[in-house]
Structure formats: structure tokens, C-alpha cells
Design a protein that fits this description.
Layout: H1 5-13, H2 20-39, H3 42-68, H4 72-97, H5 108-114, H6 116-127, H7 134-147, H8 149-216, E1 230-237, E2 240-247, E3 256-258, H9 268-274, E4 281-283, E5 289-297, E6 303-311, H10 316-322, H11 330-362
Antiparallel strand pairs: 1-2, 1-6, 2-3, 4-5, 5-6
């Protein structure tokens, strides 16, 4: 840094120097003098300068005038202009050196004129300080940091520790952010399921209203129980189950099922019959297909088995309403079907009574 001080001294010294043009005019002569001194021909020129230079000048003018048939005054003008032009060409290299900071021939006035933007941006403020030098600045900075090396080291260590702590906090924050995003995603999925379940319940209520109207109008039948999925209904008598309804299924369910027959031991309604508590049981007879069975205690001591048949992908409503979930209390769904089956059983008993009365009248 202190290497810049000589340059600063040159800039300061040039503050009060004369006009740059006259310095540039004299510069070629000074340069010629230095060259002559180096070549050691000054004595020779001194010996002949008093005679040769005037004689050469007069002779040169006479020769040019005679050769070109020009008046003497015109020849003098031509020689003078030509000489001035040649001399100005000799001045140009010196002028270029005068705008280079640090060059011995540097001139502040010409520098300010030719490179004003650079001067105003970098040097003007520094030169306005009378006692400024770069060496002093370097010594000051060195002394401060030399004395406070230990404090600076401690400061760096503390900053590094704080940065490490911040990095740890950022990593913890990022981990928490990922966890929060997962929780939000899970909540959104649960909300979507809840909305779907609510829509399914609304559909069930509409279908239930239709079924009740059909009951009032004496049009209700087992086919009105298929608003969630296809169904089969079996009535239990001793160790056998007799099919009394088969709606919206493929019809492959057997008409009679022996509870003790090993052929049917994997049926969901066999598990429901043998269970101590009336609750749904389900199986997957093949991938993606469900059969859900529920035992129902009916009037007159009868036991019915209500079976729901549905595909997982084609009937998400059945999947949501008939299998346990956090969205819907499925027990109420089965209670609703139990009531509807009781109504159908009552209708069946009433029809038998009416048929018996009709036969009695005919007899």
C-alpha cells in the first residue's frame, strides 16, 4: 500500500506547476540535451554551433528558394511552418507521458483536462487531504490488528460458532417444515375423505326417503335395499342358511348353506353366525372384491344374515359406509338396514296372514 506514496507525491507536487503546454514545448529540447550528454558530443556542437547553425539556416533557405523559384519570404514561411509541425510531432510522445500518473513527466493540469472523470472519481478527494499518505494508513491498520489479534481470533471463533448454531437451527426448521407439510398433506387427504363420506351419507338419506315412501305406498321390496351395493339375505334355520333375497349380484351365491360344511368355512356370513357379538365380518373372495356380512336378530326369534357384495374400485361409497373408518359410525348404517329388514319381515308376515285369511274365506 505504501508503494502508492511516490505517486501521491508526484500528484501533490504538480499542483502548482506551470501550464502544461509550455512544459511540453520545452520537453523535446530537454530530451535532446539528455541524449547529447549521453553521447558526449556536447563539446563538438558547442564548437561549431556559433557558425554552422546560422550558416546552415541561411544556406538552406537560399537553396530552397533557388530550387523552387520562390520568393525568400515564402520560403521562410514554409520552412517555419514545417519546422513547427515537425516539432509538434516531437511534443506528442511527451504529452502522452504527461497524463500517466507516476511518470516523471506527469502533469496534473493536463491529467485533469484529458482524464477528468478518473481524476474526479479517484484522486481529487485524496489530494484534498493535506497530510494523507498510504504508509500511515498501512501502519495504523497494522498496529490496530496487531494489538487486537487475540480479540479478533476470539471474535472469529464466536462468529463461527454462531454460524454453526444458525445452520443447526435451519436444519431443524427444515425438518419441522417437512413434517408440517406431511401433516398438512395428511389433513388434506382426511378432509377429502370426510367430504366424500358426507356426500355418501347425503345420498343414503335420499335413498332412504325413497324407500320409506315406497313402504307407505306398499311397494317396498328387497330390491330397495341395494342403494349402497348388491345384497344377499339368508334366513337361519338350525344349522342351515336359506337364501331369501339376491339383488344386483351375479347370482352365484348358493341357495342353501350348511354351517358345518367345510366348503363354506371361509364365508363371511359363517363367521358372523358363529360370532358372539352382532358385528360386520368381511372377506375378499378375490382381489378387489368384498363380501361384508352382518347378523341380525329379527322378530319371532328369527336370525337373518345380510351380505353386501361390492368391488373396491367401482364402489368407494360401500367401502366408506360398510367398513370401519374414522369418518363414519358404521354401526348406525347397519342399524338402518336392520330396521328396513324388520319392515320387510313385517310385510312378509302380514302378507302371509292376508293370504291365510283369504284361503279361510274360500273354504
Amino acid at each position: 500500500m505504501k508503494d502508492l506514496d511516490p505517486l501521491l507525491k508526484v500528484l501533490t507536487r504538480n499542483k502548482e506547476e506551470g501550464h502544461w503546454f509550455w512544459i511540453a514545448v520545452v520537453a523535446p529540447i530537454k530530451a535532446l540535451g539528455r541524449l547529447m550528454k549521453r553521447l558526449n558530443i556536447a563539446a563538438l556542437l558547442k564548437a561549431v554551433s556559433g557558425i554552422s547553425i546560422p550558416v546552415a539556416g541561411v544556406a538552406g533557405v537560399g537553396v530552397i528558394s533557388a530550387e523552387n523559384h520562390l520568393p525568400v519570404w515564402a520560403t521562410i514561411v514554409i520552412v517555419t511552418v514545417t519546422g513547427a509541425g515537425v516539432y509538434y510531432l516531437l511534443m506528442i510522445p511527451h504529452i502522452n507521458k504527461m497524463i500517466i500518473p507516476g511518470n516523471p513527466e506527469f502533469h496534473l493540469g493536463l491529467f485533469k483536462k484529458k482524464r477528468r472523470e478518473e481524476y474526479e472519481r479517484y484522486w481529487e478527494r485524496i489530494m484534498s487531504l493535506s497530510d494523507f499518505n498510504f504508509e500511515g494508513l498501512q501502519d495504523f491498520v497494522g498496529s490496530v490488528f496487531g494489538v487486537q489479534t487475540i480479540e479478533l481470533s476470539r471474535l472469529i471463533q464466536r462468529l463461527e460458532a454462531e454460524i454453526a448454531e444458525k445452520d443447526l437451527q435451519n436444519k431443524s426448521f427444515e425438518a419441522n417444515l417437512v413434517e408440517y407439510e406431511q401433516e398438512i398433506k395428511l389433513f388434506a387427504q382426511q378432509q377429502e375423505k370426510a367430504d366424500a363420506a358426507l356426500a355418501y351419507v347425503s345420498e343414503v338419506l335420499k335413498e332412504l326417503n325413497i324407500t320409506l315412501y315406497r313402504f307407505v305406498n306398499k311397494r317396498m321390496s328387497f330390491s330397495d335395499l341395494t342403494f349402497i351395493s348388491g345384497i344377499t339375505i339368508y334366513r337361519q334355520k338350525d344349522d342351515r342358511l336359506y337364501k331369501i333375497a339376491d339383488e344386483r349380484t351375479t347370482g352365484v351365491s348358493p341357495d342353501i348353506v350348511d354351517i358345518n360344511d367345510s366348503v363354506y368355512e371361509n364365508y363371511s356370513m359363517i363367521a358372523a353366525v358363529r360370532a358372539e357379538v352382532d358385528k360386520p365380518h368381511w372377506v375378499n373372495p378375490y382381489p378387489g372384491h368384498y363380501v361384508v356380512s352382518n347378523r341380525m336378530r329379527m322378530m319371532e326369534g328369527e336370525v337373518w344374515l345380510l351380505n353386501f357384495h361390492f368391488d373396491e374400485k367401482r364402489n368407494e361409497k360401500a367401502l366408506s359406509l360398510l367398513l370401519p373408518s374414522d369418518m363414519i359410525e358404521i354401526r348406525e348404517i347397519y342399524r338402518m338396514f336392520h330396521v328396513l329388514c324388520l319392515i320387510l319381515q313385517q310385510n312378509e308376515a302380514q302378507e302371509r296372514t292376508e293370504e291365510g285369511g283369504a284361503h279361510h274365506e274360500l273354504a
